[in-house]
Design goal:
- The complex is a heterodimer of chains A (535) and B (398).
- Chain A is mostly helical and 535 residues long.
- Chain A has 2 domains: 88-385, no CATH class; 394-533, no CATH class.
- In chain A, 51% of the residues lie in helices and 3% in strands.
- Chain A has helices spanning 12-26, 29-32, 80-88, 94-103, 105-113, 122-129, 139-144, 147-168, 172-184, 193-207, 215-223, 226-231, 245-254, 264-273, 319-330, 333-347, 354-366, 371-378, 381-385, 394-404, 415-421, 439-442, 446-457, 480-492, 498-510, 520-528, 530-533; strands at 277-280, 293-296, 306-308, 311-313, 408-409, 464-465.
- In chain A, strands 1-2 form a two-stranded antiparallel sheet. In chain A, strands 3-4 form a two-stranded antiparallel sheet.
- The radius of gyration of chain A is 24 Å and the shape is globular.
- The two termini of chain A are 28 Å apart.
- Chain B has a single domain, classed as Alkaline Phosphatase, subunit A (3-Layer(aba) Sandwich).
- Classes of the chains: A mainly alpha (535), B alpha/beta (398).
Amino acid sequence: MKTQSIFKRMSRRNFMGALGAGAVAAGCATDVLPPVTPPDGGPPTGPTDPDGGVEPIAPVEPTEPTQPIEPTEPGLPVGFKALFLNRTSFGATAAEQARFDELGYEAYLEEQLNPGSIQENDSEINALLAPLWTLTATPTELLQTNFAQAWNNVITHLAKARLIRAVKSRRQLNERMVDFWLDHFNIQAAKTPFVRYQAIQYERDVIRPFAFGKFRDLLHAVAKSPAMTVYLDNSSSTWNALNENYARELLELHTVGLNQGYALQDIVDVARAFTGWRPVSNATNEPPDGMFQLGFVSSLHDPNAKLVMGLPIPSGGGIEDGEAVLDHLAGHPNTANHIARRLLTYFVTDNPSTSMVSAVAEVFYESDGDIQDTMRAVLSVENLQQATTQLKRPLHYVTGILRQTATTMDSNAAIDRVLDDMGHYPYAWITPDGYPLDNRYWVGGMLERWNFAYKLVKGEMVGFNLPLSATLAPGVTTDPGQVVDYWNERYLMGRMSSSERTALIDYSNNVRNGSASGDAELFGMMLTMPSYQTV
Amino acid sequence: MRTAGRICALGALSGPAWMPKMSFADSHDSSSDLIIQIFLRGGADGMTMCVPFGDTDYYTVRQSLAIADPSSMSANKATDLDGFFGLPPALVGLKPMWDAGEFAIVHNTGFPFIDRSHFNAMNLIERGTGSPGISTGWLGRHLLSRNLPAGDRILALAPQGNLPTTLFGAPQAVVMEDVDAFGLEGNWDFPATRMPFLESVYSNSVDVLKKSAEATVGTLDLIGSLQSGYGGPANGAVYPNHDFGRGMETIARVAKADVGLEAACIDLGNWDHHGNQGPISGDMASKMKTLADGLVAFRDDMDARFANTTVVVISEFGRRVEQNGSGGTDHGTAGTMFVLGGGVNGGQVYADWVGLDPSVLEDGIDLPITIDSRDVLGEILQKRAGNTNLSTVFPGIR
């Protein structure tokens, strides 16, 4: 177990110093002063803010020590287990809850942060993935297949595979990270046939291997992925026909954040640095599985000198121009802030405080973008104690029910259509910002959620079978109060409110026959309640 | 600086020159118009949506993307609107509404201080403010300020998968893609008992969930009357077979059911034409055609109710004046807005066109924003929706 780094004392001085250095380098202090990127990623807080003005970063008290995480299990706050497991998984099974009880917070987190150490549920996952033939086909093979067949199957298979892993994987925090990164580095599979066929490789070889690695490596892998270069049009950008799309989103979304230290000229110079980066596939340059890979076409590259956020790039460079930009951005303190805020928004709270963001950003910065170290900071007891109630996004809600109830799926189970009905189809978000993290975007879809639960418990979802055993309360009587309490512990880890509890018991007594254990409709009612819709 | 001096009668009005006065007729009854926002996500190219053929520089900066002058011999030329601006062929279906005075265009408009970021611009336009402390949408705040008495109604509708930011904060706002499919499903023993249960358990939940559940259950109460006896669009209107067309039909259907609808928001996506823009026969043309067909069908379907309807077609920004090397356009600043409805003083392009010379362009490359989009939206709320306190909707606006 790797506990040392949890207690690592961070050198705030260096991090804050780096922020200052960045400002000097860019030659415009007010532009670079950090972040305070707003919670929903939108309102401007930089100098262009028409109404709000610049909100400088709150100074960090120099005397404030980094709090070591002390609480051992008895000391954990009330409700912490539910909070922690709901944020680090798509819905904790009985086995995962028992594992948490056994290991305790720190060791459980370490285990999840090292997904390779967890024996994966391979037999079940592989059996479910087996019919999804396009996942193991090469683009060449796809192109040789009936076009329409391949075209439709790729998208369905990708989506199903994603959801199957979210439901069945024991490496739950890893699945949550993959979900996070796929939004952070969003691609829309339907943009072009090329992107669609490369999306398989994108998730498998670009996102998943780096989900807990170094952000720098992840950023390079994304930048060099055929899928991203085509999705954001870099593949058509040349020295004499510049396309700014990738350059802009690289800065705004992938790294430093909106207006955090760059201006239009920086975007142009970033775009120039990446000219000539485009996918290639040829005999001498072909990856093992026949996929495309990034190539560099020097005749399309702009070799003149560039200046990107204070980084001078001398003339005469080639592919190293873009690589230098990626390295500069990966190590930029504003990137640390941006990633920290995004992670905290996803895992902890809609509106992370400035000090919370700074603390996590510092870990990110000092660890050279180590995602494991950063996640230890994100998921600290202190941070989770400040967590706000968040609506599960549809993927979280649906996969949570399926995994907690051990619902079985056969090859007819159209799990991807379920997500489509809820507006959360994998790889379908058009724009590069990824599916929203904002609760309010998702609240309109309550009816679809309720109906999924209503149909599932009645056996009306084709291909899905929610076992009766999930609705039983073994070892207790059929008394509604006791059954509801059992369910509360088992599925909600105690989050049910007293008014919800009363409503369920009343429903059992007044509408049903008062025999709650095994009552699928009553169980379905629980799945529609606010406490099950939220974490 | 070159000025196309044939804009609207701005000089006769008080206020700064950039402020449009579209002279919406005051709504003739005490209730509000139905206000509809159609959001073209991705940054629709305003110079294609409303072609400045009268500016010869247009044909220099848009070598392969320009729409031909109305006087040209081209089969794909612009349709003249006022001697300077024209409609592209894909939007020509809107010309009859233009001629009928029900359709106006605002050019060189946008939310000031936009920075060519999709997400920031959408956020600003939809929230109607740059203030970080305000996270609700402009239409949401307007509807909240209506302060209507309790009672089942569908006050606001998003006929799509999710609630757009513009409606954040609105009471009685429902997401409903398909009227006929809206209902509690599952073959339950006592299906009707589910609604009081939901009302009960959501009444104590966090505010956003509570509001959404209330709106959903309220809509379920009304859905029977909406579903029964629907005979399809009126006047033989044919909506495009597209999510947008179906959404527009849903809006008309709910409006005609008299369930209190005052606002609707619908998205039409994918206008981010960095490459292969296709203003004549490509991607953008097909999107514009869908937009025009949907609007024409909606107008026909709404019939007399169109007199009390105001439709705003808006996008987060316009695109770069000069086309890029991929046959597309990069992000720009000012764009166009369409305003349609019975109360619109239409048949005019409201613009303060400064020309395309780099010396007058934003950063030398983009159309400057000469009309604040909030001024247009504010005027609509004031004149067509009875809002007497615009400062709660658009705080800080001049």
